[in-house]
Amino acid sequence: MAVEHIHQLQPRIADGRNAIRHVFIRDLVLSCRIGVHRHEHGSSQRVRINLDLAVGDERALHDDLANVVCYERIADGVRELIGGRHIRLVETLAEEIAAFCLVDRRVRSARVRVEKLDVFRDAGSVGVEIERFSAL
Description:
This protein is an alpha+beta fold. 24% of the residues lie in helices and 35% in strands.
């Protein structure tokens, strides 16, 4: 296995040796104006968002919120990204969420899943999952 490939896999593991912890948000359900079809324009539909952020930070925590990646700030940022605008693709929304999460230099990777919940009667959801790594 190539050394760079191993390096890319490391952020996925909550690993004490590499000071990696995972900050996650599970099953955040929001109303979103999303879709490419005419019937999807002008109305909202439910999306479920799951995030898993591999966070590397050598600083001591000191039980201080300023020393961690705050999941409340991340959730608020996702809500703001969705806002009242229309987004055509779940892929676009996933990319924007990942880019927002990676602005914090402590975030080494962001795994983002965006699911539309009410598309097919015979499926629980449809969507996309991506993983993006920081440029550092």
